[in-house]
Amino acid sequence: MRRPSWKLSTWALLGSFAAGCGASHSHVTWSEDAPNPREEVFVARPPPESPAPSPTEDPKAFAARYANPAVCEAAARRLQGASRDEAWDGLKACIEHTPFTQLNALLGRAWAQELSVRPEGAKLIARVVAQRGGSVTGELRYLQEKQIPIFSLASAMDRPDTYKGRYVLLRAQVADQRSEGARPTVWLVEQALSSVQTDEVVGYGERIDSVTAYSGDVGGRGAASTAERSGRGTTRRFVENISDETGREALGRLASADPFLETRRDYVILARFDGVRLTSGGAETDDEAPRIPVLTIVSYHAPQALVVY
């Protein structure tokens, strides 16, 4: 039995069509997740950070760039690899234009060489001590541990010949000012910082006091009475810093008259010890005659109200 001829021709036609398609097209599979090859992807990049201002050219702008004094000091320290002068100017900017109290960082290994050779190193130390509250007695002990050649007024008065020409650091008030020749002189009264605790009412609370009293006669008859007292109040303990005179005084010489050095106000004073001299009425041959130390004031700084330990 013969098959119909139309079926054969139909299959032949479909086969040739399929062959033609295979020859002229490539097989492509489309997916909704596939990226469009013509679409460009742009990634947002932050603008390049502007270089830090030079601490030598603009110290205030350099210090203002950093969030706190510790970060500022670290930035200044990183400059040492490129320029030690630039790094030192950065440290000065941090101390002079921020509330810098990091005495440990200042006296650390990174700045030890600079403090030993830079003439303004002692001034920076005195400034930081003042910004830490001006507790000179405690800070001097730390300076001694670090072998920093800054000493107390008491040590200089005990051994004038040993300490003559050396730096002394003291907290003092100006009691008087006068001109002695071409150089003004101030009378300094040394102060010691101490703290006093006080209780201050800051809110409300409840407090009840009860007192019971007994009374009676010889026969054993008696009575008891009770009295109560109530009050409301909440207190909080405050610690206040006060300065007291140590009993030591000194004459401080200034290069010129300074209207900002006010009387009856505490200052942290860095000075050079020039020795002692007799007060009025004393004789040179009298070993017991009263003597007063003489200082050349190098710098002075008003201490901050809060003490940093």
In short:
By secondary structure, the protein is α/β, with parallel strands linked by helices. Helices cover 29% and strands 34% of the residues.
Biggest sheet descriptor: 5 strands, mixed, barrel
**Backbone shape:** flat
Structural class assignment: alpha/beta
Strand content: 25-35%
Low-confidence stretches: 5-31
Strand order of the largest sheet: 2-3-4-6-5
Count of strand segments: 6
The count of helical stretches stands at: 10
Q: H/E order of the elements?
A: HHHHHHHHEHHEEEEE
User: In whole angstroms, how far apart are the ends?
Assistant: 116 Å
What does the radius of gyration come to? 41 Å
Helix content: 25-40%
> What is the residue-averaged pLDDT?
82
Oligomer: single chain
How are the SSEs placed, and which strands pair?
Elements: H1 5-24, H2 59-64, H3 69-78, H4 84-97, H5 103-106, H6 112-117, H7 121-131, H8 136-145, E1 150-151, H9 153-158, H10 160-163, E2 167-180, E3 183-216, E4 222-253, E5 266-278, E6 291-301
Parallel strand pairs: 1-2, 4-6
Antiparallel strand pairs: 2-3, 2-5, 3-4, 5-6
Helix pairs in contact: 3-4
